[in-house]
Amino acid sequence: MPLIDVSGLERTFVVRRRAGFVRRTRSEVRAVHDLTFSVETGEMVGYIGPNGAGKSTTIKMLTGILVPTAGSLRVAGLDPSRQRTQLAQRIGVVFGQRTTLWWDLPLRDSFELLRKIYRIPDARYRENLDRFVELLDLGDQLDTPVRQLSLGQRMRGDITAALLHDPEILYLDEPTIGLDVVSKGRLREFLRALNAERSTTLLLTTHDLQDIEALCDRVIVIDHGTSVYDGSLGGLHAQGGSSRTLVVDLVDEGPPIDVPGAWVRKVEGPRQWLSFPTEASAAPVVAAVAAAYDVADLSIQEPDIEDVIRDLYSRGA
Ligand SMILES: Nc1ncnc2c1ncn2[C@@H]1O[C@H](COP(=O)(O)OP(=O)(O)OP(=O)(O)O)[C@@H](O)[C@H]1O
């Protein structure tokens, strides 16, 4: 049986709105509709989609916070909403936007509280704490209250907190949001090592395509509550035909750049934006531009998730 098994899942919210002084209207929002997917142990899956697509609602059902309206759902063989306490021992959850740590307590005390809540055996707790503190470089912050930590330190604290009880599944909701490039890189490296060492299954919600590129072999795209793509990131790019962008600053304004393998999308004074296919190497395009034009500066922009999804729709997938 897959570790996560979702079939025909539905979740509807009833929304009541005031329509005049007394009258209220009642409408239904179908947040998740006919959603089916499964995840095997050790997979790292990106769960992506536009705002309001139903990602958080799915994660809340997977963790047992919300009860499905219909459909079937099994996580580690358990029914999440009915067996929430048992499930809590098997999963970890990290939210990039808010902390699950105690704001006024030093990190060390938050961890100690979690040891008691999850009844983690002493030896295992010590071993895990030492390992995560070392890998996440948190040694100097253990005695600092959470409210005094930087965003990156707090996030590393939150990840440690979510992992102390050895969960088989880790749900991460925008884990790298607001972090600088170095902190993002370090966090991704840690998650890769965790998956390799412990086969921890990762379900990752993010708007940062580089998180997915660095971590996930598989992406599930959800829109209007249902899965519209399930496969590799390469396959998603290929279906959507999304492109990367070469931003060229010319020394002087001029006509649109004309080089093989790329097309000009926008011109603003001496700056021009050229698109080229994601799967193609940037090197020949850069070389052709540099050989034929007076270039002051060049940079490459990767597509973000919204671009990829937009492309997917524009191709009618
Ligand atoms: N408690 C609720 N009551 C009413 N409607 C809700 C509730 N929670 C979510 N919704 C609606 O369900 C839909 C899916 O919301 P959800 O938060 O799951 O999307 P999301 O993909 O996580 O979005 P985002 O990327 O913006 O976080 C939206 O239309 C949202 O307004």
TrEMBL record:
Every ABC transporter domain range: 16-249
Xref: SMART domains: AAA
Claim: Transport is one of the keywords in the record: yes
Protein's cellular compartments: Cell membrane
Recorded GO MF terms: ATP binding
Membrane topology: Peripheral membrane protein
Protein name stated in the entry: ATP-binding cassette domain-containing protein
Gene source species: Nocardioides furvisabuli
